[in-house]
Amino acid sequence: MTFSEENYLKTIYHLTTASDSEVSTNAIAEKMETKASSVTDMLKKLADKGLVNYKKYQGVSLTEEGKLAAKMIVRKHRLWEVFLVEKLGFSWDEVHDIAEQLEHIKSEKLINKLDDFLDNPTEDPHGDPIPDREGRIVKIEKQLLSELSENQFGICVGVKDTSSEFLKYLDKQEIALGSKIEFLSKESFDLSLRIKVNGKELTISNKIASNLFVKLV
User: Which residue intervals define the domain HTH dtxR-type in the entry (predicted)?
Assistant: First the structure.
């Protein structure tokens, strides 16, 4: 596959995972910031290769072969993110763009050795699951911080928004994976939250809370 074909497969995979249904040409075009006509041309190529199910005006879904191929691209991306953070000292807001380049490396042997070198991690630096070499994914039990009730405790296990701006904001607030968060109260006016993170109280917006995944403890 070309880099472009791989990027399309990964995009369709992420969109179908989020919606659990077929995705439209327009949704793919919006995500990839390209024209719908360009998406249609690519979907026809991917369909010819047996990687997607595509019928005009009816949306698109991945075939089993396409889903496995997409998972392998995601696997490479997330393993490289772990490597960059754990072994090279990059911060979690820096690694996405670099991993976007490294995910296109073709060597399966290299990726499997990288996986073993990192002790076979199941999550990337943002808390997203890493498919194993067969494409299996360990499900992470989590919910959004905004969904907690007062006086509940959670451990930060992931982020919904992986943008550099959001991750830098979390760094300023000293919120990271593994941080213990207590839900203290919610303001009815703007739905902002009063929380305690690692013993320190602070107020965050509902938008922030709606982009933080926690596991109840």
Answer: 1-63
Q: What angle do CA 107, 84, 87 make, to 5 degrees?
A: 105
Cα-atom radius of gyration of the chain, to the nearest Å?
19
- Alpha-carbon span 146 to 4, nearest angstrom: 36
Tokens describing residue 53: 């199910």
Q: Which of 39, 62, 85 is the last residue of a domain?
A: 62
Residue 42 pLDDT class (50, 70, 90 cuts): very high
Task: Name the DSSP letter for residue 23.
Answer: B
Q: What is the pLDDT of the chain when averaged over all its residues?
A: 93
Residue 58 makes CB contacts below 8 A (sequence gap 6+) with 22
Residue 122: what pLDDT?
94
Q: What is the pLDDT of residues 173-189, one digit of tens each?
A: 999 999 999 999 999 89
> Stretch 90-95: mean pLDDT, rounded?
94
What pLDDT, in 10s, does the model give residues 53-68? 998 878 899 999 999 9
Same domain, 162 and 118: no
Say which residues have a Cβ less than 8 Å from residue 134's Cβ, sequence separation at least 6.
none
The candidate with the shortest Cα–Cα distance to 67, out of 124, 17, 25, is 17
In whole angstroms, what is the distance from residue 40 CA to residue 27 CA? 12
